[in-house]
From TrEMBL:
Name of this chain's protein: Replication restart protein PriA
Residues in coiled coil: none
Lineage, opening ranks: Bacteria, Bacillati, Bacillota, Bacilli, Bacillales
Gene name in the database record: priA
Its job: Initiates the restart of stalled replication forks, which reloads the replicative helicase on sites other than the origin of replication. Recognizes and binds to abandoned replication forks and remodels them to uncover a helicase loading site. Promotes assembly of the primosome at these replication forks.
Co-factor: note: Binds 2 zinc ions per subunit.
Cofactor (UniProt): Zn(2+)
CDD domains in the cross-refs: DEXHc_priA, SF2_C_priA
Molecular-function GO terms, alphabetical: hydrolase activity
Length: 830
DNA sequence: CTGGGGACGATC
DNA sequence: ATCGTCCCCAGC
């Protein structure tokens, strides 16, 4: 029996299966998906079995046996392995990287070396060195690492002993975490004889009597720790009873439950409004049919999408299938979790990055061991190891956080569609502002003349309770300036805030820029403070009084005089959240402000803490970056102010307008969701920009129409697909050289591919290579950055072309080599 | 003639 | 990625 193993060595050259012999004793245990330790190039590494075969591809003499099996249940299933292949192809990464992304990091084992005294070595206490005696004391075998730590000078001798055969070396894979085990006390099995024994306990051991009496009355096993606290005694007392054979103490597996001690109030399905019911019926039909189908649920904020999700999941579970709910990391608040736990109780597993490694592992095991049927989580929860998926819901599907920034650079939405196909599951993409990719996919419905393809559009244009969308006022900041107001708050926004304070209502202020100021400039000579490691201006942080780089974290003291001309006319320009906070305090003495940005929410749970405080009306204003725009729902918020809508509009990103529109629409939906009517004020220097005017009228369709026009004109997605290749190196000439080489190779292959297709340009099939050009931030962390862009459409294997070109350029890949990263733009492929 | 150091290639 | 091998040149 032969196992094909993908070894955990993430490089281009080892990105293929290696064959291993399955030892007889493991034959029944090893299957595709098993995690194993295998000897590889003179050491032991972790690997995944991806297939079982009868015959090896290589000469039998080269085969080595699998060294160890790491889990009793394989952490991957065949469908996840297949999905891994797809990811590694589509996103251009080694298969092991794709597979590793699917399991909790607790299962990322590292090889550990052990040394043992060889069997035939007799003890020779007189002449033995200390370290050898130490090994004997430890039972003949120790971790190499602990030997190194204790006897740093013995390295030479130990190495020699291994070479001579006096010591043997053994490697094993060790997981970062294991199942949590808790000492647990079991009540006596035979209560009658225990009663008898009770009387036999002498009076001086009164504590033992008390413990035993307690345990006789106890139905269930109890944690030792809890027992000791309840009866305020010590473990020796309990141990004594154990030794008498009256009690049993055993280690019991226990989940680390991040929501332990929280009771979730059970909720029942709410009656659906007509709009909700129609949407639900369509999803339920698809679930009944059991065929993969993608839905785009376009529901305005407050239209009751979550209740539709909950009932669709319930229907899915009733059909004996499982469901995954993806939510942006930032929206995965306890309130959000509560909605799902409240409806489905213990059958919900929660997966997100704020959990500790152990908690995450235990939630994952709940799914693996079929104790959970619903997974709620961020991006990576798309890999939840369910066997019969029926439904995948992606809430706020337009969110860019569904794209992973590190390798594997997958987009959870695209992976979801693929995974649903494997399982015959339904996908529901929910958003008030669908991404253009999803919208275009939905525009290809049978009705629009593309039968058999496309996502079904499910509109939910009504808000629950019929609340109107809040009125949105656009304030032209150029007018304000002309009117003599140079402050960061326009008069309408100032008046609005003042009114809210007087009425005891709350406001939310959005400014998509943290820190105090955007840049520091000398008015005399024009000097600006730049990061020494990146080509980017430093941001001043008021509290710590330092200039900080938001890309590499570099910090330096802020100058009081210009470092270049020594003038004192050095000033802070641009506005960050810290400065707004300061200004609010000046304008409204006594105002209570909660500031929420990366700087104030690094601590675990701080994000929720601030929101809870705000919900309890312990602050008047919630001020923050885009994290205040997402999913918050506070009844006393009646004013939402956007301090500078232009911040995201001018980013060097063809999605800048789309992101701005989404952000403004999202944040506008935060006001007046309850009894009190709301109001939104947007400050901007571009009041006529369509992203802003369409957001003002809550007019998604108008925005999409306009934006699609621009995208078509510029040949950007969804009218084509993109691959961005970024090259970086410490030396500028090296990057330029590699960039030129790469572009030449790409152009050559693109031409060749074009030859075989009809109508290269303007038709439905083309491939175009742009660059190399310097990236928008030409240097980060002391590395110069250049990029090439591949634009393509139709049936061309652009990723394949890129993969080959990258492999050719990255050939001499020693330490001095140019780093190349490949980014495939998201695309809903149906 | 030996021994360090960097390029090259294999790893089942 | 990491390790062993080969080959070259410097030093003895």
């Amino acid at each position: 029996m032969i196992a094909r193993v993908i070894v955990d060595v993430p490089s281009r050259q080892t990105d293929r299966p290696f064959d291993y012999e399955v030892p007889g004793e493991l034959a029944g245990w090893i299957e595709p998906g098993s995690r194993v330790g295998v000897p590889f190039g003179g050491r032991v590494v972790q690997g995944f079995v991806i297939a079982i075969a009868d015959n090896a591809d290589v000469d039998r003499s080269k085969l080595k046996p699998i060294a160890e099996l790491l889990d009793h249940l394989p952490p991957l299933s065949p469908d996840l392995i297949e999905l891994g292949h797809w990811i590694s192809e589509k996103y251009c990464c080694p298969l092991t990287v794709a597979l590793q992304a699917m399991i909790p990091s607790a299962l990322k084992g590292k090889a550990e070396s052990f040394v043992a005294i060889a069997q035939d070595q007799a003890s020779d206490a007189l002449f033995e060195p200390d370290w050898m005696m130490f090994i004997r004391q430890q039972g003949g075998e120790v971790k190499l690492a602990s030997l190194q730590a204790k006897y740093p000078d013995a390295a030479r001798d130990v190495k020699a002993a291994i070479t001579l055969g006096d010591l043997t070396e053994r490697a094993a894979i060790r997981d970062r975490l294991s199942v949590r085990k808790v000492l647990t006390v079991f009540p006596p099995a035979d209560r009658e004889s225990a009663e008898l024994a009770l009387t036999a306990i002498p009076a001086r051991a009164a504590k033992q009597r008390e413990v035993l009496r307690f345990m006789i009355g106890q139905e269930d096993p109890i944690q030792l720790q809890v027992l000791l606290e309840t009866l305020s005694t010590t473990s020796s007392t309990v141990r004594a009873l154990e030794e008498k054979g009256l009690l049993v103490i055993r280690e019991v597996e226990l989940d680390r439950d991040p929501y332990a001690g929280r009771a979730f109030r059970r909720t029942e399905p709410l009656p659906l409004m007509e709009g909700q019911q129609q949407v639900y019926d369509q999803i339920a039909d698809a679930l009944d049919a059991g065929e993969s189908q993608v839905f785009l649920l376009h529901g305005v904020t407050g239209s009751g999408k979550t209740e539709v999700y909950l009932q669709a999941i319930e229907h899915c579970l009733n059909l004996g299938r499982q469901a995954i709910v993806l939510v942006p990391e930032i929206s995965l608040t306890p309130q959000m979790v509560e909605r799902f736990k409240g409806r489905f109780g213990h059958e919900v597993a929660v997966l997100h990055s704020r959990l500790s490694g152990g908690e995450r592992y235990d939630e994952w095991r709940k799914i693996r061991e079929k104790r959970a049927k619903v997974a709620v989580g961020a991006r990576s929860a798309i890999f939840a190891p369910f066997e019969r998926l029926g439904l995948i819901i992606i809430d706020e599907e337009h969110e860019s956080s569904y794209k992973q920034e590190e390798s594997p650079k997958y987009h959870a939405r695209d992976v979801a569609v693929r995974r649903a196909k494997q399982h015959g599951a339904a996908v529901v993409l929910g958003s008030a502002t669908p991404s253009l990719e999803s919208y275009t996919a939905a525009a290809m419905t049978p009705a629009s003349g593309n039968p058999g393809r496309g996502a079904a559009l499910l509109p939910m244009p009504e808000r629950v309770g019929g609340k109107p969308m809040p009125p949105v006022t656009i304030v032209d900041m150029r007018e304000e300036l002309r009117g003599g107001n140079r402050a960061m708050f326009s008069r309408p926004l100032y008046e609005g805030l003042k009114k809210r304070l007087e009425r005891g209502e709350q406001s939310v202020l959005l400014l998509n820029r943290r820190g105090y100021s955007t840049f520091v400039m000398c008015r005399a000579c024009g000097y600006t403070a730049q990061c020494p490691h990146c080509d980017i201006a430093l941001t001043y942080h008021q509290k710590s009084r330092v200039l900080r780089c938001h890309y590499c974290g570099h910090a330096e003291g802020s100058p009081s005089a210009c470092p270049s001309c020594e003038s004192e006319h050095i000033r802070f320009f641009g506005t960050g959240t810290q400065r707004v906070e300061e200004e609010l305090a000046k304008l409204f003495p006594g105002i209570r402000v909660i500031r929420m940005d990366v700087d104030t929410t690094t601590e675990k749970g701080s994000h929720e803490k601030w929101l809870t405080m705000f919900g309890e009306r312990k602050a008047d204003v919630l001020l923050g970056t885009q994290m205040v725009a997402k999913g918050l729902d506070f009844p006393y918020v009646t004013l939402v102010g956007v301090i500078a809508a232009d911040t995201s509009l001018h980013l060097p990103d063809f999605r800048a307008a789309e992101k701005t529109f989404q952000l403004l629409t999202q944040v506008a939906g935060r006001a007046g969701r309850h009894q009190l009517p709301g109001e939104v004020i947007i400050q901007t220097y571009n009041p006529e920009h369509y992203a802003i005017t369409t957001a003002q009228h809550h007019d998604y369709d108008a925005f999409v129409k306009e934006e699609l026009g621009h995208r078509r004109q510029m040949a950007y997605p969804p009218y084509c697909r993109l691959i961005l290749i970024t090259l970086s190196h410490e030396q500028l000439p090296q990057v330029i050289n590699a960039g030129d080489k790469l572009a030449a190779l790409l152009r050559h292959s693109a031409d060749e591919a074009g030859m075989h297709g009809a109508g290269l340009h303007g038709g439905n099939r083309f491939i175009e290579v742009l660059g190399p050009v310097a990236s928008s931030i030409p240097r980060i962390k002391d590395r110069y950055r250049f990029q090439c862009m591949v634009k393509y459409r139709g049936n061309v294997d652009a990723v394949g072309i890129v993969r080959e070109a990258v492999a050719a350029v990255a050939r001499p890949q020693d330490k001095a080599g140019v780093q190349i990263s490949v980014d495939v733009d998201p695309q809903v492929i149906l």
